[in-house]
Every structure is written in C-alpha cells, then in structure tokens.
Design goal:
Number of domains: 2
Strand content: 15-25%
Radius of gyration: 24 Å
CATH class of the largest domain: Alpha Beta
Mean pLDDT: 92
C-alpha cells in the first residue's frame, strides 16, 4: 500500500512524525444462550477504553495536551449484559479479573463465569488440541451482568505512548488503573444504582481486597460483595523464606491431601476420608509442629525425631528426608520428592495433575503440569471467542499470561511482606453491608486453604462482622472450577451470593 501521507503537500513535519492518539474501540453483538429451561438473550460489548489520569495536576501542556487529559493506558474488557431486564440500571454487576500478577481475565471468564467455557473432562483435563468451547449452563450471567477486565500488559490492554509499562506493574498503580476503569464503566453505562461485586482469583484476591477500600476512598464506590477465589492477601503465609516459619504448618494440610489423593499415605490415614485426614493434619500442624518449629535448634534430638516421624506420616515423605530438610520440607521440594520413586512430579496449582521431568534426580520439578495442560486450551478459547462470536479482530497477540510476577513492585510494603488484609478489614468496618465469599481448593499448593484460613482469622475483623464471611472448600486445586463437581457447586454458591445482595 502506498504511503499517501508522505506525499501530501500539506503535511507538516510534526504531522508526519506524530503517532495517532489512543481512542476507544468498541464492538457490540447480540447473543442467545439456553440455560436449562430458560433462554438468556444478552449483549456483549468488547474492546478498549482509554484511561486518562483525571486526578493529575494541571501543570501546563505537553504536545498540545493538558497533563490531566493525556491518555495513560488502553484497557481491554469484555462485558455481558442481560436483555429484557425491567430495570437494567439496578441489576447486579460483577467486575472480574485474575491474578499472576500478569494474568488476563481468561481463566474465570472461560472457566466458570462467562456464557462460554472451555470443554474439559470431569477432572478438568481439556479436550485435545485444537481444543473446544461450549455453552456454559453455569454462567453467573443468570444473576449478574459481567465485566471481565484485563490489566495493563495482559489481554489487549496496553500503556499509552510515552508511558512506562513498569509503572502499571505495581500494587498501588494497579489499583489506580483498575479502579478508574470501574468508575468509568459505571458512569458511562449508568450503573451507579446497581449492586456492585468484585471477583478475583489468586493475586486477583490481592487486587480485590485493595480495591474494596480504594474504591471507597478514591471514588465513593461501596461494594455489596467481594468473591475471593484462592486467597492470597498475606504474602508471609506463602513464602518459604529463611526464618519465616509460618508457611510450614500452613502448607502441611495440603501436603497431606496431595499424598492422600495419590495414595502415598500410611495405611491408617489412607483409608480415612479426605476431610478427616485434613482435620488430623491441621490439629498436628497448629500445635506440636508449630511449637517445634519455634524451638529451632533448641529442640532435643528425641523431639526432633518424633516430629520428623509425624511430618512424614502426614506428608508421604520419609522421616529420613524430613530430617534432612530440618523438619521443613518446602513446596518446591515436595513437588519432586513425593512421587520421585514413581518417576512423576505433582502440580503446584493443582496437585492432582502429574508431570514428567527429564530425570528423577533433581530437587525441584521442571514445570507445573496443570498450568502446562490448561494454557493452550484457554488461549484457543479466548482467541476463537473474540473473532468468531464477538467480532473483535486484532493483529496484536492476546496476552493470556505475561511473566511479570517476579518483577511486580510493592512500594507500600518495602522491606516487609505485602499484606492487604488491613484494606479489607477497613472496608468492611466502613461498609458493614459488604460480604465476602472465599473459595479454597484442598489440592492448591499455590495458595493453600490453611493459609487462607489463617489470613481470614487474623484480619482483625470485629465479631459482629464475622458472619459476613462465607468460606467454601473444594476437592480440587487453585482453579477449582475446572473440576466438574466443584464447578456445579461453586457456580450455585456464586449465584446465591449475588442474589443475597
């Protein structure tokens, strides 16, 4: 194609070198979905919205634009709205995002919430390549309109020209941008009168907890409820750092569940129901094990050997191996060690999944078999959905998962563990009508259920508000909804939670 701009006699040098300003780009389509005996007619709106920093100080102009009016980022989203609602402005609306940091919203979107989901078997294993989508009879659209948000650097969301991508990859800056998108969406779509919900998964729970207070303080937006999937709001509970004893007793129940699932426990425990195994492990972890860890080198040899035997009993590891770890087997070692003699590794995000390494001599697994199994299916799903059903086309890649989690910044938590429980507690104390729903998977070694329970019990929430929290446990992993029985129950509980608002 000829460059006609270059040949234009009226084009100035500035016009020739200027790049076009970001603009909103939206595509709207109409759809129909059969759910049981009901037919849902809905509108899908997909595209990008330009965010501007309206809070910026107007200190002059640059390139002819006021600083406060300059585009900061282009946010990509997918929104579903049910048609035929008598008062659509008062219908519940749920904003959804995943975690990472660096993940797009594709997992909750195509796993449980949206009108379409990835085809998988009962365990959660997707169909073979090229994979497939199917109508989702469990969609939350029955009870709430849905907005799926891709933070900057994921999906089709990008920073504006001249902005630094790293600026958006920071805890508070992430809250600023996602919070501004939510405010803008409510304003443009006339949804300030709607019951408002957030749902986040993994780091998305960190974001959701932070937003619960940020939206109140910055935009006067008070939420009806927050749904937290695989809780991660106190990082001290999740990091096996030297001298941090907290994760060891909190991971132990998931080690036990994993060994039980793979039939690696001693016969006495193996024959018990899973919930009984977990209860017995938690009783040991919260008493004798935690007390022994606190003793450090002061623990006697006899007590050390006794604790090693108990840890081995509940984890499927050998007592000799536990002693060699100084009573402290980490998650990365456990992935490799549990089934080493079988030549297999277990997953991190879902320990039901098994992997194969180059050899069996290494100390840690080469990859997470669950993530490796699912990534391709969800990438196919979102790309097919965008083009085939939502009529959104772009040559730019849809970024399912950007590897930025280890580059993420926490400026508000420098030299200490990030913990956003304070934000969640403050938001609930200021808004006692806000409710929490927490979903935890027994086979999740990314955000173990016991770590989530510990976090919730240490929020500092007053007794009168404890009733606002509902915790549900599933015999699945981090993305518990890929497991067919868990999908059915979790979808039912989410619908009931939204109705309760």
């Amino acid at each position: 194609m000829a460059d006609t701009t270059a040949k234009s006699p009226s084009a100035t040098p500035a016009e020739l070198t200027a790049k076009p300003e970001l603009q909103d780009r939206l595509v709207t389509t109409e759809h129909r979905l059969v759910v049981g005996k009901k037919t849902l007619e809905y509108t899908a709106t997909v595209g990008t919205v330009v965010l501007r920093d309206y809070a910026a100080k107007d200190v002059g102009t640059k390139d002819g634009l006021k600083e406060a009016d300059k585009p900061r980022a282009s946010f990509f989203f997918i929104a579903y709205s049910l048609k035929g609602v008598k008062k659509p402005e008062t219908r519940p609306i749920t904003f959804s995002f995943n975690g990472g940091p660096g993940s797009s919203s594709v997992w909750l979107h195509l796993g449980i919430l949206g009108p379409q989901r990835v085809v998988a078997d009962e365990m959660g294993m997707p169909s073979p390549p090229p994979h497939a989508l199917t109508d989702n009879e469990h969609t939350l659209l029955t009870d709430s309109d849905l907005v799926f948000i891709d933070p900057v650097g994921t999906g089709h969301s990008r920073m504006a020209e001249g902005e630094k991508i790293a600026e958006f990859h920071e805890y508070q800056r992430d809250l600023d941008s996602v919070g501004e998108f939510i405010r803008l969406h409510l304003t443009r779509c006339g949804r300030w009168g709607s019951p408002k919900y957030l749902i986040g998964e993994s780091y998305g729970t960190t974001r959701a907890a932070g937003l619960s207070l940020h939206l109140q303080d910055k935009h006067d937006i008070f939420l009806n409820g927050v749904m937290l999937v695989s809780l991660a709001i106190d990082m001290q509970t999740l990091h096996f750092d030297h001298a941090n004893e907290l994760p060891y007793p909190l991971f132990l129940p998931t080690f036990a569940a994993t060994a039980w699932y793979h039939k690696a426990l001693v016969p006495e425990l193996q024959k018990k129901p899973l919930v009984d195994v977990i209860a017995a492990t938690e009783a040991f972890a919260n008493t004798d094990y935690a007390a022994a860890l606190m003793q450090g080198s002061r623990l006697t040899k006899a007590d050390r050997e006794h604790i090693a035997g108990q840890v081995a009993r509940f984890t499927g590891l050998s007592a000799d191996y536990v002693l060699k770890t100084d009573l402290r087997p980490t998650d990365s070692r456990y992935f490799k060690q549990l089934l080493r003699e079988r030549g297999q590794t277990v997953g991190r995000l879902d320990t039901r999944f098994l992997g194969l390494d180059r050899d069996d001599a290494g100390e840690s697994a080469e990859s997470d078999p669950m993530l490796s199994t699912l990534a391709g299916a969800y990438a196919v799903g979102i790309n097919r959905l965008l083009k085939d059903k939502l009529n959104f086309t772009s040559d730019a890649p849809y970024v399912v998962h950007a590897p930025i989690w280890d580059k993420w910044k926490y400026k508000d938590f420098e030299n200490k563990y990030a913990n956003v429980g304070h934000s969640l507690r403050s938001a609930m104390h200021a808004n006692p009508h806000m409710r929490l729903y927490v979903a935890s998977g027994y086979y999740d070694l990314g955000t173990p259920h016991a770590a989530g329970d510990y976090t919730l019990s240490h929020l500092g929430l007053r007794d009168s508000l404890q009733k606002n929290i509902t915790v549900s446990y599933f015999e699945a992993g981090h993305m518990m909804y890929i497991h067919a029985p868990s999908l059915v129950r979790m979808a039912k509980e989410l619908r009931e939670f939204v109705r309760g608002g």
